[in-house]
UniProtKB/TrEMBL annotation:
Name of the protein in question: Prolyl oligopeptidase family serine peptidase
Organism name: Hufsiella ginkgonis
PANTHER family (alphabetical): DIPEPTIDYL PEPTIDASE 9 (PTHR11731:SF193), PROTEASE FAMILY S9B,C DIPEPTIDYL-PEPTIDASE IV-RELATED (PTHR11731)
Gene3D superfamilies with a match to the protein in the record: alpha/beta hydrolase, Dipeptidylpeptidase IV, N-terminal domain
GO BP annotations listed: proteolysis
Residues covered by the Peptidase S9 prolyl oligopeptidase catalytic domain: 503-694
A matching Pfam family: DPPIV_N
Dipeptidylpeptidase IV N-terminal domain residues: 56-405
InterPro entries per UniProt: AB_hydrolase_fold, Peptidase_S9_cat, Peptidase_S9B_N, Serine_Prot_S9B/DPPIV
Record-level Gene Ontology MF annotations: dipeptidyl-peptidase activity; serine-type peptidase activity
Amino acid sequence: MNWNKDGNSYTMMENGAIVQVSLPTMAKTPVVSADQLKMPATTGGGRFGGARYAFSADQQIVLLMNTHHREYHNTFYTAQVLDRTTGKVTAIGKGLKDGYLLNPELSPNGTKVAFVYDNNIYTQDVKTGAIARLTADGTDKKLNGWFDYTYSEELFCTDGISWSPDSKQVAYWQIDISKVKTLYMINNTDSNYAKLIPLPFAKPGEEMAAAKMGVVNVATKKTVWMKIAGLPSANYLTRMDWLPDGSQLIVQQLNRMQNESRLVLCNPFTGLSKVIYKENDDAWIDVKSFWNRGTAGWDWIENGKAFIWASEKDGWRHLYRIGLDGKETLLTPGSYDITGITGVDEAAGWLYFMASPDNATQRYLYRASLNGATGISRVSPASLPGTHSYTMSPNGKWAQHSFSSYQYLPASEWLSLPGNTPLTEAESIGKKLAPNPAAKTTSFFKVTTDEGIEMDGFMVKPANFDPKKKYPVIFTTYSEPFSTTVNDGAGIGGRRGGFFNVDSGYLFMAVEGRGAPAPKGRAWRKAIYRNLGWINANDQAGAAKKIIRWPFVDSTRIAVYGGSGGASTTMQLLFRYPEIYQTGLASSGVPSQFLYNNVYEERYMGLLPENKADYTRVSPVTYAKNLRGHLLIMHGTGDHNVHYQGEEVLLNELIRYNKQFMFMPYPNRTHGISEGEGTALHKTTLMANFLKQYCPPGGR
């Protein structure tokens, strides 16, 4: 779905064509026919697959992008431009290696396409097809217009170029990784001789990528570097956008500890800059993507004289109006968190956002006035408790509204705002609601630990549950800052882990502890600072300690499963709380905090070497010698996110203390262990058999 600028219509792919949908009638008008989207052989052939497309302002020029392949977080495209007036299709990057274009972007006036190729930035004239190289200093160590692994993984930076509103300049990141050490993965299976796979990867305390922000003039091909204070190798540039009038850039800069944020205005012609807004936190400051839809853009209001920004400075995540003079106005006062910006209806003076002041497992749409003069009001209907989401038009008048809860199957509708009024009653959520069959066996609960920490949890019981019997428990966990686990959605009652059937006789549970990004205030989320893996595991165990006393729980059959950060938590629980957990299944975990990427670890653990003792104290491998239960470890040898190296360090420690365990390496699989024929079935079968052997199902 691509919204048109006026906000009263959008375009989408349908039956191989691009159509425009007008609101509120939902009338569809063909924009680009399926025949027009058939690519001539001279442009690469085939049919446009709908990966990405973009229109010029007058909708006469269409940039069509087909995904060619992915490398880590980077998507490489083939691209064509369609002139709707003449019907002519022109290949982008003709003469360059096919399928290696990064971030193709149509200029606002529709005359040129900018893209990244071989570490440099190019433009191509839409009419003539002429290609011009705007930068010439790009190498495999100096990336113009795109990002290294950790910038894209942890700072969510994916598109490294941005056209100026007048189409005369391109702003871009330059990422210098010349001092970043190289990690090597090994592919042992695709040839007779092992192949090394290099990955520049900064670990905690090591040299990190150095970022600069440049603006290149399309006509002169000369770059002006933004003079942002601070060493590029000691700060991050996490977000950038043009002011709506194109007179300046705005850039967010974070220091290496990520506890100081500066918003900087930069003159694209001189490079001169000034800080207009500065914020500090005793722990860390989240990047904009944690509370804002998408990974690009800025939330401008008042024709670029101000913007919407989030801060936790008063103990809750709130939204503020920030003027270009740096003055702020609180827009969402109260003891609650916003979880994201949904949209702005500037004409009516409303800011829309998601929050859930009374139940951290749910999400609702709220609104507040843009001048901060009124309090907040809930827009989502009180008759639908659960999780709501909204895709809102740029003018704030329309939205696609989706709803689900553990009680109801997902449903969606189109509506008008601010009344939350369905465009057609027949297609409203109220008419579509259907009971979720899993609701009969699903329930939510709260549990309070001996430390006084109240946690949300859910439980799924077998269909034939007998309260007079005792059942084994399988806890699922993540417990780190990237996502929550206990959410009131339709899928929660159907979660079976993919490797066991709750109806065979398991209680399936999760509890949400501190450190998870639940809307429970800054103190809740940031309790784990310099305690990543420690506090969150303590909370999980504290809750389990209470749960195993429930009369229908068999305390001798307690299992825990997690992937990624959840695998790290699983290890912590097996090693540090063997009196509670007898069985653990850990997939792609981080056994040592010293071995993950510097952005993540230093954000939550502080810098090395001064915090070395904390890194050691919170690493699961430190406690491997305490293993008493049954542990299954799974990891892909080609995991470029959480490296296989960490598991080998853990295995050595377990072997050192003669701790018996089961280990399953998956050759060349990445973090999700999904690639390769038969992988999914093998992994689920392995885990199911492991559970049956060491945590047998059924009530007793």
